[in-house]
């Protein structure tokens, strides 16, 4: 496969983040790596079904929904992965007997089903499937990383208390070369692909970040995994800096959270200033880190 | 899942009193729709439609399958409408409420039963290979009237979609990549659009495009599916207060006008998009 021409192998695609897009959800986020974009929404803490009620903490319900077709086993696996990554980070014990409902919707994901031509003729050289189905596309690692980032940022937008920030990125090995944030085409050609999730915050990774999750597919050496992990660590730090910048611009904050005394209390409610306050709490944990 | 919170008596009285004076809480007049905003994706067949705060994303995709034995010349049009809790926490994942089933049925009637897409044109090799066009409707935000928003998004996406070109020699089928051959648009006969009216009380008060609060307080709704040729494709009134024939005629007259406006908007948005994205070179 041809080397990358649009960016260096260790560069990310352009990142995009927008928050509070949905009117009916308590928190929502759209996060994109280039043309792979995922929307996440949070409702909660809200009423929980008695069957699922937990007396000492909130119930975390996660729904992952694909862009095309119905959710299958790979989406159930993604839900399990997200639960295991997010549950330790959210302060669930602060919301006992309630429900935190996280819904993830893939909004765009490049499909390559028809980017290569093929024929059903027996003499043809290319593999000849008799039918072309949508399910033949493998679950994308970049999409998985975008899902993790979108869920975390939706939690921040909803003001759900968390120990720290979770940031993820995908890495792939294509013909022995390390490729950060692979495109769909690169993922298909890859010998192995990995999603790394790092947590940032006091006691959960500091500013350096701590690797809290790895999801790998394919064949690879131990050395390769560590090589990929160190690349992913620097990349997640860059993504976190982008997220910080984006949230700061949104609330007009610069650097450290503003001192609380400066804000005049009564006038704020009309201007919907409640969110920035919740936000600065989220920021603090990142700052102290 | 948590039930939808009932609007308070104050809200209800305010809305009714205002409506009697011909005013709506969001400043529209009674027969106005909220602004329709269409956004197109990088990929052909991806459309986001916003009707005020209501937001729906539609992705159209195609696959090649074997046709049914009794209809060897006919392709498929599959419409998938599952409402996720993202739209509102009142919707439960994996369990369809009555409202949701009704919406899915209406969308199906509007798009499939009105024969908007020529399904025989989707045939590649009779009895062996046909296109199956899949329309995935994703409801992102429910600020009322998701059905109309979804119908606009779906028909725009179907018109925006291009399927890869196919060459048939005998029994052999070659599917050409988008780069190799110019992709082909679907054969679409007309543009059906749903318009929902909400009725309040006995004094024949009707509003077009009800907001979330209005749809909670309405005593009944009427959904019309019309096209710009002034044809009624579907007229659906499921329950609610009985309506005199005059009222129905009146809303149809208004609907005919509004459909023309929406159709013109879809057409101009598609033209604008076609200028930006080069699909074919002549």
Automatic annotation (TrEMBL), chain A:
Belongs to the RNase PH family. This is 3' exoribonuclease family, domain 1-domain-containing protein. It comes from Leucosporidium creatinivorum. Keywords: Exosome, Nucleus, rRNA processing. GO terms for cellular component: cytoplasmic exosome (RNase complex); nuclear exosome (RNase complex); nucleolus. GO terms for biological process: nuclear mRNA surveillance; poly(A)-dependent snoRNA 3'-end processing; rRNA catabolic process; rRNA processing; U4 snRNA 3'-end processing. Residues 276-289 have a biased composition (Acidic residues). Its main location: nucleus. CDD domains: RNase_PH_RRP46.
From TrEMBL, chain B:
Pfam families: RNase_PH, RNase_PH_C. Residues 33-164, 190-257 form the Exoribonuclease phosphorolytic domain. GO terms for biological process: exonucleolytic trimming to generate mature 3'-end of 5.8S rRNA from tricistronic rRNA transcript (SSU-rRNA, 5.8S rRNA, LSU-rRNA); nuclear mRNA surveillance; nuclear polyadenylation-dependent rRNA catabolic process; rRNA catabolic process; TRAMP-dependent tRNA surveillance pathway; U1 snRNA 3'-end processing; U4 snRNA 3'-end processing; U5 snRNA 3'-end processing. The keyword Cytoplasm applies. The keyword Lyase does not apply. InterPro entries: ExoRNase_PH_dom1, ExoRNase_PH_dom2, ExoRNase_PH_dom2_sf, Exosome_comp_Rrp42_subfam, PNPase/RNase_PH_dom_sf, Ribosomal_Su5_D2-typ_SF, Rrp45. GO terms for cellular component: cytoplasmic exosome (RNase complex); nuclear exosome (RNase complex); nucleolus. One of its GO terms (molecular function) is exonuclease activity. It is found in: Cytoplasm; Nucleus, Nucleolus. Keywords: Cytoplasm, Exonuclease, Exosome, Hydrolase, Nuclease, Nucleus, RNA-binding, rRNA processing. Belongs to the RNase PH family. PANTHER family: EXOSOME COMPLEX COMPONENT RRP45 (PTHR11097:SF14), EXOSOME COMPLEX EXONUCLEASE RIBOSOMAL RNA PROCESSING PROTEIN (PTHR11097). This is Exosome complex component RRP45. The lineage of its organism: Eukaryota, Fungi, Dikarya, Basidiomycota, Pucciniomycotina.
